[in-house]
Amino acid sequence: MANDIAVQFRHLPVDEAAKAIANHIRMFWDPRMKSELRRLVDEDPTSFDPVALTAAKQV
């Protein structure tokens, strides 16, 4: 889902996009979703869009 959100922010510079995605995740994802995101990032970071990966590391 983080990759899908990243698509919506492609028009922004990378740093701004990552910040916006991280903010979205903080505001709207419940703790279980955030925990799952962290697990997936740890297990297979290559499955993430680079901007989504940067954002995930900011959450």
Describe what this molecule looks like in 3D.
The chain is mostly helical and 59 residues long. It has one domain. It is 75% helix and 0% strand. The chain has 4 helices and no strands. The longest helix is centred in the middle third of the chain and has 15 residues, at 14-28. The protein is globular and about 30 Å long.
Write the layout of secondary structure elements.
Elements: H1 2-8, H2 14-28, H3 31-43, H4 50-58
Helix pairs in contact: 1-4, 2-4
Give the tags.
59 residues; mainly alpha; globular
Helix content: over 70%
Number of helices, counting only DSSP H or I runs of 4 residues or more = 4
Rounded Rg: 10 Å
- What is the number of domains? 1
| Poorly predicted spans | none
Instruction: Report how far apart the termini are.
Output: 14 Å
Average pLDDT figure: 97
- Percentage beta strand: under 5%
Overall number of strands: 0
Quick summary:
With 59 residues, this protein is mostly helical.
